[in-house]
């Protein structure tokens, strides 16, 4: 049994350790991190999944605000599930629950990731949306939380500053 709850400041070091475990060394050199530097995450959307009893951290997701051209968007990620808990639906639960909360106040989400995984949540490739280089455009995916929210939206993704 696990529960998904908002991340607290006390969770932060454990979440960082989980991301270090799940991603290749040097993850913070990825271009998406340039969009996060000096910008606070969207706290109400950052979630952790903890197993009971014991409170083992099974997974975590964070979101940052960004701009695409001039319009606001959410950047989903990082998201990671502990290797011992992968394939049990935790990643899907973290994504679905956080997206449900995101619908209250946000119109569109983007991420850099594998289309075969994120397609199941409705993410599709975004044409004309440019993440900071080097980013494979095939991996730039978006989801409209409000109908038509990505229509006509294009341009560079920039930090929320
Ligand atoms: C990607 C990740 C968050 C998915 O979480 P999870 O809890 O293991 O995933 P779920 O249980 O919700 O879904 C499992 C399904 O997704 C598939 N899947 C997982 N990662 C995938 C990927 N990168 N590409 C395609 N399919 C993937 C699994 O094969 C499985 O398929 P099935 O339902 O047909 O059996 C997790 O595997 C992880 O932390 N990976 C390492 C870090 C990472 O790559 N993060 C994402 C960066 S874009």
Which fold name fills CATH's third level, the topology? Answer: Aminopeptidase
Q: How do the helices and strands follow one another from N- to C-terminus?
A: EHHEEEHEHEEEE
Q: Assign an overall shape.
A: globular
Q: Specify the CATH architecture.
A: 3-Layer(aba) Sandwich
The low-pLDDT segments are: none
* Beta-strand share of residues: 25-35%
- Give the overall pLDDT as a whole number: 96
Q: Report the top-level CATH class.
A: Alpha Beta
Going by CATH, what is the homologous superfamily?
Gcn5-related N-acetyltransferase (GNAT)
Give the tags.
transferase, single chain, about 20% helix, Aminopeptidase, acyltransferase activity, transferring groups other than amino-acyl groups, globular, 9 strands, GNAT_dom, Acyl_CoA_acyltransferase, about 160 residues, alpha+beta, binds coenzyme A, 4 helices
What does this protein look like?
The structure is a single chain. The chain has 161 residues and is α+β, with helices and mostly antiparallel strands. It has a single domain (2-159), classed as 3-Layer(aba) Sandwich (Aminopeptidase), CATH 3.40.630. It is 20% helix and 33% strand. The protein is built from four helices and nine strands, in the order βααβββαβαββββ. Strands 1, 2, 3, 4, 5, 6, 7, 8 and 9 form a nine-stranded mixed beta sheet that branches. The longest helix is centred in the middle third of the chain and has 13 residues, at 90-102. The model has no long low-confidence stretch (mean pLDDT 96). The structure holds coenzyme A. Residues 22-23, 79-81, 86-92, 113-114, 116-117 line the site of coenzyme A. Coenzyme A (COA) binds next to β4, α3 and α4.
């Amino acid at each position: 049994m696990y529960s998904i709850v908002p991340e607290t400041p006390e969770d932060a070091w454990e979440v960082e350790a989980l991301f270090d475990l799940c991603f290749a060394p040097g993850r913070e050199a990825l271009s998406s991190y340039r969009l996060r530097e000096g910008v606070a995450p969207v706290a109400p959307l950052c979630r952790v999944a903890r197993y009971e009893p014991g409170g083992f951290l099974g997974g975590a997701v964070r979101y940052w605000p960004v701009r695409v051209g001039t319009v606001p968007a959410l950047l989903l990620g990082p998201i990671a599930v502990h290797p011992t808990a992968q394939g049990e639906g935790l990643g899907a639960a973290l994504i679905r629950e956080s997206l449900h909360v995101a619908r209250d106040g946000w119109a569109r989400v983007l991420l850099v990731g594998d289309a075969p995984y994120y397609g199941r949540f409705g993410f599709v490739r975004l044409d004309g949306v440019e993440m900071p280089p080097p980013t494979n455009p095939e991996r730039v995916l978006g989801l409209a939380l409000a109908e038509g929210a990505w229509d006509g939206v294009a341009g560079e993704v920039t930090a929320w500053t």
